[in-house]
Amino acid sequence: VEASIPEGQREAWRKFSAKEFTTKDQFETEVVKHIETTLARSLFNCDEAAAYAGTALAFRDRLVIEWNKTQQRQTFADQKRVYYLSLEFLMGRALDNAMLNVQQKDVAIAGLEDLGFRMEDVISQERDAALGNGGLGRLAACFLDSLATLNYPAWGYALRYRYGIFRQEIVDGYQVEVPDYWLDFNPWEFPRHDVTVDIQFYGNVRKYMDDAGKQMSVWENGEIVTAVAYDAPIPGYGTKTTNNLRLWSSKASHGEFDFTKFNSGEYEASVADQQRAETISAVLYPNDSLERGKELRLKQQYFWCAASLYDIVRRFKKSRKAWKDFPNQVAIQLNDTHPTLAIPELMRILIDNESLEWDEAWSIVQATFGYTNHTVLPEALEKWSVPLIQHLLPRHLQIIYDINLQFLQYVERNFPKERDILGRVSIIEESQPKMVRMAYLAVIGSHKVNGVAELHSDLIKTTIFKDFVKIYGPDKFTNVTNGITPRRWLHQANPRLSELIATKLGGYDFLKDLNLLHKLEAFVDDKEFRKEFQEIKYANKVRLAKYTKEVHGISVNPSSLFDIQVKRMHEYKRQQLNIFGVIYRYLELKAMSPADRAKVQPRVSFFGGKAAPGYWMAKMVIHLVNQVGKVVNNDKDIGDLLKVVFLEDYNVSKAEMIVPASDISEHISTAGTEASGTSNMKFVLNGGLLIGTCDGANIEITREVGEDNIFLFGNLSEDVEDLRHQHFYGEYELEPMLKKVFDSIRSGTFGDAHQFSALVDSIVDHGDYYLVSDDFKSYIDTQKLIDETYKDQETWLTKTITSVARMGFFSSDRCIDEYAEMIWNIEPLPPQQNGA
Ligand code: GPK
Questions:
Q1: Residue 134 near ligand 1, beta carbon < 6 Å
Q2: Which pLDDT value is given to residue 1?
């Protein structure tokens, strides 16, 4: 029900409508008002947490004003919108981002100082919104920033997890998982108790004839869980466009308690029902690139897809347009296969509820959806068992079978001579039990499928989706190389560097048009600029060194070469290669004379990242890093020549401190396994160089910055299969340098060798699937080259500055423009000059 104010009263509304602060005094008025009234605190009772809350609420009010206007404007313009469906949005902190995007941080710094607080301390009070695992979730967050900045009408849809990704504690060198209860105080979300959707599970399908005598199906008698919307404003940078991120929370359909049960004395049963419903949105699954087929996960996926689609369809129906116009109003992007159930769900809505014919419904569905693939790792490809789907979503299983039937008939007509193709491309895998292959359903139900970097997009066409390229032709498949938002990953994370660049380029336009960075190349020989650039890097290293001392009790010298590998712990990302390299370095140092040691480039090896709670091998690597650190950091022979630090609980806000402090960062996945990587882009943009394999976006980074400005090593993806084959037949020898490392582990140098045997054995005895041995020598040689290069600081500096200047391509703005043009077919809607 629309409830607008009558014409006669609107004048008064406009007169009294909320205004945005623009001055320091107005800002302080807002902060104090919120602290005194919203929080019911006073100047005698105001700590940093309260100062944070007051500041956040002041900025929240600002965002809300533009957010409301943006939604009105977009509704009025009635043009096509994009809906980004992602189970993960790794947003990090919101306050700093809001202040910078509305360009009022300076006002707030001055205001807070006046009130007795330092901005840095206030910002650090905020907990990360950590609704994601790693790259996939952070990409979604960068995309929201770019969509708003570029004025695209866009909504994100996700789940409002009560617990985000677990917090990682390191106890005795082992990872311990601690729950992340982030909702205690979250001023950035708005509960919409009036926006609810009832979602059905289980039940049965009944067939009936409609009035016109047509065979229809209806899904009924299921269990109902209610989805409640929570909205968060997403401000663009330097624009008034403020988009919406809608998170669904689950609750029992009958409210707090089932009163019938409650009143009849079944108090516990009534509470249990409520808790079961709330479980759906309770936790983020902490697996990165791994699927485990749990019923609750499937429930989450359907709950979220069904609520989001209901919402999207409801919005479309208000426009009273014909169904064939749906794809002209709505683009839905599937971030990986997690939201693939949206495909059969939209079919169900169109056929069962709206009585469309199959073919018409199907062409609407295909024109609406796009699918982004983020990995070729087999263990990450989602499959759900047919009996599970049958039980939970009986109507959807029928629809999936019908989609499959139509598809296989099409394939059979077009490839009559190919006997095996039907079994290979069928959505249903004929295993025991049968499985639904979600990636195939996503490909079949979408008009475009994209990979996330050039190599990866080529690989999906020749491996997992090879048959589909033959069936649909190559045009259905495309590449959109990932990007990062320069607002958070340059301006916010590295304000001094951003400012230095702005003084050289005559303003901050580069934050909206990152290709402008190329003009920095003109300053590569500018003495003053070089000096400042280097000073900023040093200051960022000092900040990380201070943190390392305070939090981990390890002293590191900021003049050392800072070598950083931060990302989820995973065998394919090969943190084990890195730590084996560190051990090799340590053994070499130990064997040197003091005179030779004096010539060595000092280095600090930083590691950071979470392991999925059930991923034993990844946890073992964390433990090994900590054990090596314990030995190396306390070895008097070594001193500052080598330090090893495991940074606990790596997350977005820590990345903002860590990334700008690197000299070299490691992106060393087995070639062909890392779809893109995005932290690689962040490190280079902040004046660090990379050591990496020819994998993912490393290849495109090399093309942009030039081969001289990156340290590549290792086997190429086209050779990986052969090498694995050789391992399998035992036709290879362990790299002798690596054998030395293993000998030292086995001799107990880093504690009881037994605890690392599975790790060593996976390489020595079990085929070395990730080719650690094959790449080891090349890795060590390249690290030596890095040491040599770093000694010539002027050369190093030239490389880093040149690289920064050449990173324009990797803005997520470029990326979003490509999606908008090639996949979504949407146009921006800039706010008008008059403010409307
Ligand atoms: C890929 F398949 C997955 C996954 O489940 N989670 C995840 O973070 C990552 N990813 C890739 O591993 C990265 O290479 C890539 O840059 C990122 O997705 C974004 O595309």
A1: yes
A2: 46
